[in-house]
Amino acid sequence: MKKFLHIISKTPLFDGLPENQLEDIRKIAVSKHFNKGEMIFIEGDEGIGFFIVADGKVKIYKVSSEGKEHILHIFGPSEPFGEVPVFTSQPFPANAEAIADSHLLFFPRTDFVELISNNPSLSLNMLAVLSKRLRQFTVQIENLSLKEVPARLASYLLYIANEQDQEDVVALTVSKGQLASLLGTIPETLSRMFAKMAGQGLISVEGRYITLIDKTGLAELAEFGKYVS
């Protein structure tokens, strides 16, 4: 139970809440385990609650009418997902699948709504997280619709450097196939872009570790779609 409390306290939704309120949230949490490749929910399923990743990784994705998969988000430890149906009483708008053996905390909608009705600070936290998620979607839509693959990749590398609080070396936390889907391309094209950017002296690649050699050049590529320097 102490582990659950620690996970909940590290989640942005519940940031800054006092311990007694965190304990109330813990009491309604349901522990669930999913094997790699197991579906958590399918688009159209009733939104009966939301999840927090305690351990593992989860991808959120949609499938086109032609059967092509496009990843929208990949979530890791302490990150929530599936929150919107909690407020809208709508079905889940996408699919969720464990891409590693995963331990999740599930929060039933009815219990959670009752809890936040008496806790305005929790409501404000959720609004902040959902607003951040909306900004991420806006950037993703802009990248996919207006930028070519090299600019999308440069933007992503700079983004994860910021997320991982790293100056020079970032670690890819997903496979290159999953990253290709996230960036709206195919693995072969992504591999060519990594090689080209390495040849330009922007990055070096060693397995899943990417060294950002020229961050100014990457920023130019992300902004203008070409390496200016």
Which helices and strands appear, and what pairs or packs with what?
Layout: H1 2-9, H2 19-28, E1 30-34, E2 39-41, E3 49-55, E4 58-63, E5 69-75, E6 80-81, H3 84-88, E7 95-98, E8 102-108, H4 109-116, H5 120-146, H6 149-163, E9 169-171, H7 176-182, H8 187-199, E10 203-206, E11 209-212, H9 215-224
Antiparallel strand pairs: 1-8, 2-7, 3-6, 3-8, 4-5, 4-7, 9-11, 10-11
Helix pairs in contact: 1-2, 6-9, 7-8
Short description:
By secondary structure, this protein is an alpha+beta fold. Helices cover 45% and strands 23% of the residues.
- Outline the biggest β-sheet: 4 strands, antiparallel
Count of DSSP-assigned helices:
9
Parts with pLDDT < 50 across at least 5 consecutive residues: none
Q: How confident is the prediction overall: mean pLDDT?
A: 85
Number of strands: 11
Q: What percent strand?
A: 15-25%
